[in-house]
Amino acid sequence: MTESGAASASIWSRGMMAVIAAQFLSAFGDNALLFATLAVLKEFHYPEWSQPVLQMVFVGAYIVFAPFVGQVADSFAKGRVMMVANALKLLGAGMICFGMNPFVGYTLVGIGAAAYSPAKYGILGELTTGDRLVKANGLMEASTIAAILLGSVAGGVLADWHLTAALVVCAVVYAGAVVANLMIPRLPAARPGHSWRPREMARGFVHACVTLWRDGETRFSLLGTSLFWGAGVTLRFLLVLWVPVALGIADNATPTYLNAMVAVGIVVGAGAAARLVTLETVARCMPAGVLIGVVVVAFALQHQLLPAYGLLVLIGILGGFFVVPLNALLQERGKRSVGAGNAIAVQNLGENAAMLLMLGLYSLAVKAGAPVVAIGVGFGTLFALAIAGLWIWKRLR
Hints:
Blueprint: H1 3-8, H2 14-43, H3 50-75, H4 78-97, H5 102-122, H6 124-127, H7 131-161, H8 163-181, H9 198-214, H10 216-247, H11 253-276, H12 286-300, H13 305-337, H14 340-367, H15 372-396
């Protein structure tokens, strides 16, 4: 599809709906598998600090393969790249189903996710462009968060009922994602003909990193999204330990319900961003980012379930409003300079480096015996200060 054709294509086109369906199933499997695998760690009495380590091996795959996956996404039809990536996730889930080391299986799922991400976001810029790209990102985020909502709940509830059944459901969902990917139109490769020598690929990725980090607008987007997703994944694991301490509940399902509240809020926030923010007014999202940290502090001090639900919904609304415009800005500017796939790969490197750093600090805090409430208050405060600093920098630049 040409750029002019993309500009005129509806975000409700057949191709876009196939992408959204494939993304929903893939994200559902990711989130269900996370909570099912966490249940595996509990079942076999792994130490508490190993829970964030599980996510760290997933994140590490993004970082290791970042120099290569962007070129893969831009050198082949992105729908087919998504299909192969989901097949890798299916293989990893199958390994965990059959009792293999959960860290090995989850690492393979992480490799599939690393290959999947540049293709799933990069294809949006090939199916539509301009302000419709913000709306397409809103639709993608809404689909993703709906999948997080249902997948997280399904993973926790099924794991409480029957652990093997939970793992089998994850594998079946990944298989469905592979089938859905076949429905995506085979679009021309965005940037074919690059060298496949690892050294040349790494050099090209370094060039893409330098190009995007030197540009003020894309640097702003990279910093904002990296802080957001690093904080988001840490909050997810914080909830797992916060629930038994603050609420006295020790099941697998309650943390998934609380994560689901964040997902509900992000759907609302993503929809609001699609209506109220354009590529020219991206800075409007920054107050929401600051408020995320403030609300996290209020949440960490709660000891009742109902207010906790409400605060997590609010965190989700603020998060959706914050991150959707930043994603669209990077896709639009990145497509013009280094290619959409490479731009998303650079973004993934920044986001996952932030996740790895924050999860590492969180694991150290847990291992050192720091109170969960204190970790939550400190985490929220630092996040609010970081986004406030980024906002001030943006206004003064």
